[in-house]
Design brief:
This protein is of the alpha+beta class. It has one domain: Histidine-containing Protein, Chain: A, CATH 3.30.1340.30. Helix content is 37%, strand content 32%. It has a three-stranded mixed β-sheet. β2, α2 and β3 form a beta-alpha-beta unit.
Length: 76
Amino acid sequence: MAIRDEALAGRVRNSLVQDKRVGGQAIAVRAVEGEILLKGIVDTNEQRQIAVMVAGGIPGVRSVNSDEVRVREAAG
């Protein structure tokens, strides 16, 4: 990963952690040439969408791929 991508991934990671709506979720962040790859598990589909929105709002992000973000199965 290039230094620029590492810095971009760090900014996205920090923004996700600081966002109260998704901050407690286990979401890993990678950046490849400005594309953000999110991976992890969230509680709701809304949190998945919020994570994409937050990541996409960071300057330098060209696109966000959330194919590997799974919504936790509802118990019961």
